[in-house]
Design brief:
This protein is an alpha/beta fold. The protein is 53% helix and 10% strand. It has 14 helices and 5 strands. It has a 5-stranded parallel beta sheet. The longest helix has 18 residues. The chain is globular and about 55 Å long.
């Protein structure tokens, strides 16, 4: 005889932690909320295999309730007894470039990006990153990531696949509206995970900058001069994708009841952790 609890699906929160999108702060909140049931998966090569790897991994870890990875690869596995709730945070594509540069300047080692960032100013670093032979870390990064084909060449097709990913991901947040994003996530996830507490302060320097970014983009990008036009062209699809995310975010946020009181409570919880 089948037990009633055997018919209840297992729910898994999956954070697609896109590089330099305030994901470390979100992961910190997930670790605090889920404890040992949260995993920050760092085997990037394995995760790049996509559903063929992720599906069995989820099955082999029945106690897992929240998972984060820099390389969540879409489309996600379809599992008969697991409901996956993908979560993504999006950052302004142009502002994100400055964060990538600052991050690489702080790193140790001799990786090409680290070496360039340490030895060159922002403008020269960006000019190098725009070259076609260099990894596309600042060229339509979000579109590539969401398409599930990071190194693909047909950006028109990749953009359409990225939109399909958004269609299957109601949990979309914006870095420059982080508090509202967390309140939205808490509301949408409550039926499956109870009263999550996603409050907390930024856990690293780049996240702190991202969460207090008014005006910073314009000041930083002014350093690029005429190169800015090339940067915008190299991120044409990301700028479109970000506008689409903003539209969807506003629509979802409008459906959150008692939003202002929820925001006040969220901020109070964050202050209590200081």
């Amino acid at each position: 005889m089948t037990r009633e609890e055997d018919l209840v699906p297992r729910h898994l929160l999956l954070h697609a932690h896109m590089f330099k999108n305030a994901g470390s702060t979100f992961d910190h909140s997930l670790r605090r909320s889920f404890g040992d049931a949260f995993t920050d998966h760092r085997d990037d090569d394995a995760m790049r295999r996509g559903a063929a790897y992720l599906g069995p991994y989820i099955d082999e870890h029945p106690g897992l309730r929240a998972l984060s990875s820099h390389w969540v690869t879409f489309p996600l596995p379809a599992l008969p007894d697991v409901v996956i709730h993908p979560v993504m945070l999006f950052r302004d594509p142009l502002e994100r470039i400055l964060s990538v540069y600052r991050f690489e300047r702080r790193q140790e080692g001799d990786a090409p990006g680290v070496t360039r960032a340490r030895r060159h100013g922002f403008r020269d670093y960006v000019a190098w990153r725009l070259e076609q032979g260099v990894g596309p870390v600042i060229r339509n990064f979000h579109t590539r990531y969401c398409s599930g084909d990071y190194h693909g060449g047909d950006l028109d097709a990749m953009y359409l696949r990225a939109i399909n990913t958004l269609d299957s991901t109601p949990l979309l947040g914006l870095v420059h509206r982080y508090e509202e994003s967390m309140v939205l996530f808490e509301y949408l996830l409550e039926p499956f995970f109870g009263n999550l507490d996603l409050s907390g302060k930024a856990v690293n320097a780049s996240d702190a900058v991202a969460l207090d970014s008014v005006g910073k983009r314009e000041r930083a990008l002014s350093e690029l001069g005429p190169l800015l036009a090339d940067v915008k062209e190299a991120n044409r699809f990301d700028l479109k994708l970000h506008a689409e995310v903003e539209t969807r975010f506003e629509r979802a946020l409008a459906d959150v009841p008692d939003l202002q009181n929820r925001l006040r409570d969220f901020r109070h919880r964050g202050q209590a952790q200081s």
